[in-house]
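Protein modeling request. Please complete all fields; requests missing the sequence field cannot be processed.
Requester role: graduate student
Desired output: 3D structure, token encoding
Chains: 1
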Amino acid sequence: MEDHFADENQSPQPRSIESIIESGFNVNGLASLRKGMHYFSDEVGIYVAFMLVYTAITMGAGFLPIVGDLSGMLLGPPLLAGFVCYVRLQSRNEFREFSHFFGGFRGGNWPSLVSQGISVQLSIALVVAILVFPFFYQTIQELVGEIVNVTSMGPKQAAEFLMRLYNPQIGLFILIAAIVALAVQTLFCLSPLFIVYRGYSAFQAIGASWKLVTKKFLAFLLFNLILWLILIAGFLMLYIGLLVALPIYYLSLAAAYEEITGD
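Delivered output (263 residues):
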């Protein structure tokens, strides 16, 4: 299959998913995290620079009329795939430059990445709706009814109002929904990597990720939990933390993918 992210040099024929499963593989989340952090620290300047460009593009696109609300779905996946496009070359010590961060927009991979992103988000929403919402229906209904009032408040008033709304049931709902979302996202966590490395279509990538992850689901789940905690820590440190956390998230996933598939 054509690899739209490669330059002139073609990669060897990749191993099939069945071959990877038959030969066995291990998921060493901590080793992948260390490797991802190593990739980031080696070229911290260019990764932070792309994070700033990513933020400027997504924020600017959000203000566009009509398409602004869709910009996250249309631009987010290929832009975030830029970390993988770049580290793919870095891990092989091949020539790379800033333009390689925009590899997600090359060839037919933009629609594949967008389709994959939408499919995963819809899957998460559907599973949470089926498994979680029925048990908290009344709580959610009351919460939604109250949140409507926030639109007429200032930021400080809105924050105080939301804090007063909190109760143990809301906290339990958020916790369970987050666990379910993490589990579903884990199943498809390798799908963007298959698009970047192998040029798979969205549904080929989703299927390949499902096949691999289900063989070592608990190990993948723990790995993704660690990565989620890093993202949450970055979020709590405001934007400065995300400048580090978001690249490390994708670089660590890429390190795990390469270790497992040999790509």
